[in-house]
Amino acid sequence: MLAPQADRVMVPGEWEERWQEDRIGFHQPHVHKMLENNIDKVLAGRTGVRFFFPLCGKAVDMKWLADMGHSVVGVEIAEKAIRQFFEENNMTYSEEPVPAIPGAKVYKSSEKNISLYQCDLYNFSSSIEGQFGAIWDRGSLVAINPRDREKYAALIISLMASDCRYLLDTLLYNPELYKGPPFFVPDEQVIGLFGESCDIELLQSEDALTDRQRGWGLDYLTENVHLISPKSS
Q1: Is the terminal CB of the chain with fewer CB neighbours within 10 Å at N or C?
Q2: Bridge partners of 51?
Q3: CA–CA separation, 181 vs 29, rounded Å?
């Protein structure tokens, strides 16, 4: 089933181009319902949790969590997305270089605990911001090149604190009908990528087919949300 998309490659510049041209149909103007529905399971009674957002775009979910008293670190390749996030949410922000990542910049909100790194995701590591108590992965694992998934999973696992709760949003559809992105990520692959070091629970499975995806030629689309946490040693 993975074969039709196995060699599909998007270079970072293509994502920046999409932002420049406002081809960002993946952006949602409201908090994602899968995050809202499952936030209690992610927090597990904790306050002031540090959240990591891989490939964050300008997700409004980041402000929603910061408003609740959590802190957010995101990584995004497109500078325009980061600037729009702060501007559209009326936040003042600072911008500074990241000495450990040549060419990278970090944008920090003045009034909220939000730091967004503009860099290649694979140049980011726990040496930059430590490990995280929660991760919200919507539009990230499904957006990276399929051949990079093992590398991606290794990075995510390295960023997980021992009490981390990683909420992962995946999409199931017939990959013969659409080349992606977003890409098809079957449950078996989620288990293959994370199952050795983590416990995985499927929290929610929803029919997510809309006219937008019908326009891609799809006849079904299922959105799954998994809760992934490090196995206690």
Answers
A1: C
A2: 72, 134
A3: 20
Q: Is the pLDDT of residue 24 over 80?
A: no
DSSP secondary structure, 91-115, as one string: --EEEEE-TTSTT-EEEEESSSSEE
Residue of 41, 77, 52, 35 whose CA lies nearest to 169: 35
What's the alpha-carbon Rg for the chain, to the nearest Å?
17
Mean pLDDT across 43-65: 98
Tell me what the mean pLDDT of segment 173-196 comes to. Answer: 96
Say how many CA atoms lie within 13 Å of 130 toward its Cβ. Answer: 10
Query: 158: part of which helix (H) or strand (E)?
Result: helix 149-158
pLDDT of residue 168: 98
The answer to whether the CB of 227 falls within 8 A of the CB of 42 is yes
The β-bridge partners of 165 are: 134
Q: Which residues pair with 227 in a beta bridge?
A: 167, 201
Per-residue pLDDT at 31: 97
Mapping DSSP to helix (H, G, I), strand (E, B) and coil, where does residue 165 land? strand
Nearest in space to 226 (alpha carbons), one of 205, 203, 206, 207: 203
Cα of first residue to Cα of last residue in the chain, in angstroms, is 34
Contact (Cβ atoms closer than 8 angstroms) between residue 166 and residue 131: no
pLDDT of 25: 78
The helix or strand, by DSSP H or E, that contains position 53, with its residue range, turns out to be strand 50-54
